[in-house]
Amino acid sequence: MPEDTSSRPTPRQARRTARLRLACSRCQRRKIRCDGQLPACNNCKKAGVACTDGESVRLRDLPRAQISNLIERVKWLESIVRERCPDVDLSQGPSGDFDMELDGDETFARDSTIRVSSASPEDSLNLTGSHPPQAQPLQHSEPVQAIQAIRSGPRLVDPIASSTLSHEIGMVSLGSSQDPKYIGPSSGYFLARLMLTSNRQDDQSWPIRTGVSNPSIPTALVEAMHGPMSLPSRHHAKQLADNYFDVINCQFPVLHQPSFMALMDQMYENRIDVESTPTATFQVFMVLALGSTVLSRRVRARLPGESYCLSAMQSFDRISIDSSIPGLQCLLLLTVFTMHSSNMRLNVWYLNYQCIAAVLDLGLQRDINTNAGISLLEQEMRTRIFWVVFTLDRMIATMMGRPIGLRDEACDLRLPQHLEDVSLQGSLQPSLNQPPGHMAFSIHLFRLAKLNSEFKYVANSIVRDTPRYAYPAVIDINEWQQGMLEQLDEWYSQIPNTPDSDYIRTICQIRCYGLRMLVLRPSPAIPNPSPEILKKCFRAALEVIRLFDHLYKKNLLIHTWNTCHSAVLSIITMLYCLKMVPEIAKQTALDALMSDFSAGLGVLAATGEHWSGAKRCRDILDDMIRATIRWVKDISNQAFDVEPPAQRRSLRLDPAHSHTMSSYNEGASLVGAEPHRLNFSEGFTQPLPLSSATENGSESFLHQDPFESFLANTAFGDPMHTGDNANLDSIMRGLFDDFIPTYPSFT
């Protein structure tokens, strides 16, 4: 009976196998025959020792050195995780019980340990049974098919996710030696998480700042092209001061303009000693710094704002910031300048709480008026400074998603009187027919800060079970939301309208639409908004972008950190609403949508000239918008095929609504915009396949978990994976790295 030779290797195969089989280290030393069995040869198995690969003249020690290097790299990466992410439990996950000693025959290996160095780590995952390893080149590619199968597989929707992701704890690492920083719900962290990527890959291209020593405050906390500068000419100083009072002080009335101008005149006339009056010196130079920053952003010229700030900081250590109102004014000027300059290395969050501590220490939260023996000027300045701190606290806490620091119930929330600065001097009486001035806008913004407080109290409360000692809980959250929208409508209708007030009036509109967007988008209180609510949210985000574009075209836009944050979160909110409510895309003219998105990217590009994080966010959002435009084109094509001609005409751009800013109402058109900006349609000729939720043409809302759907829906989710750039850490670092610098914070 002839033998079956089908399983026998040919001589060529036998010789190849013999060359690939490598004797283990122990058999090589003992010069005995090794059968090459896996995971251990018979000789090592009988001796009960670890079976490791031997050396080869051809392979040398490269495979074992590669494994050793990988082990060292894993140790290094684990040390970074322990340092930057202490909340990560490294004991969880796959077992790490491997023997790190690769040499010697006295090291005992576990039964499950396989030591194969002639194959790559990726190939070792596929080894089964006793098949010998196959020779592979030194450079290997990852199992792409397996990874794609994992990424594209369906995700199970957690029914609890809709109520947890809207207030997910976001810890963002901002520096090389800093603990992670908490970024909460109102910051838009969870929207960025959902819209960017489902796998957080480390972006090696992001610059890592290293900790430095802090020998002195002025030199380490301010970056300037030149050193401290002396006073400019008197004419130029007045021009810079006027810019400050027209743009900054009308939003944050920290200073009394006539008193400050008199103080500056005294400095130019050498009637005050600079060394003995550090408060006056600091205020004058800081106002010049803020005025220079405002003017340089508008005329697009380099003015020495940071140099004036350095001059001011030379007097800062001699100011009693915690024991006097002028000291608190200096601290507020420093806080406002930090929000306007990316070169400052002060932590705004800590500055905010320094201001709160000073307010409470000086009693500014209580209503102390002229009946207590103080002048009208002092009474009004105490009230104004309190409201500036109150407003900044709400603004910073909302942007960072953190609790407010100065609670409403601890304060006498009296508003300043409608008196301009000139009327507070002497016995001058305000005219009844006098048009509203800067203080009218300031007081109106203070009222909006109260509405912001209500939003933070109700919508962003993490613990929904209200304790007995707190305010009564909101019974009907939807009724509360509708009431908030009505209050915002009323506030918007009462914005003062005076000549030459285009900038501050537009700022008021942006603040209102921004708060409206926060009330409407998902929050811990309302994790699953209805389709109609998300449509209103889309309109609010859209108006924020259009208003920024309006200021930018008129050279009025001041590129602050608030500008970057508002623009980024407005674009992300628009993308979110488009995905959750496909009806928005069907009702929106494509050219108008592309025009609005390009306007937002243009604002971010201009802001990126001053804030590095804005450019980074703009690059990430650009890829996301391109994928969205392709998806919207697919929706429009299907809607065009199934809808009758009468309904088809409704998708065209209505000339009656072709303006940059629409009126503030619920019925504002979704298609009103100028279609003359950057055309994103170039290069998008292949539409993406629609998800099953929108194929029937009648579904206007994705009836699934609104958060997990971004990670589960491959039709819309796959194009959002834009590589290493599109990850959550990058965009959140771009938003908050300049705002919470990793340099030593101010104390």
TrEMBL record:
Entry protein name: Fungal-specific transcription factor domain-containing protein
A Pfam cross-reference name: Fungal_trans
Region Disordered: start-end pairs: 118-142
Highest taxon above the source species: Eukaryota
GO BP, sorted A to Z: DNA-templated transcription; positive regulation of transcription by RNA polymerase II
GO cellular component, one term: nucleus
UniProt keyword annotation of Transferase present: no
Annotated keywords: DNA-binding, Metal-binding, Nucleus, Transcription, Transcription regulation, Zinc
GO function term, MF aspect, one: DNA-binding transcription factor activity, RNA polymerase II-specific
Coiled coil: none
Zn(2)-C6 fungal-type domain sequence ranges: 23-53
Start-end of Polar residues biased regions: 118-139
Localization per record: Nucleus
Listed PROSITE patterns: ZN2_CY6_FUNGAL_2
InterPro entries registered for this protein in UniProt: XnlR_reg_dom, Yeast_MetPath_Reg, Zn2-C6_fun-type_DNA-bd_sf, Zn2Cys6_DnaBD
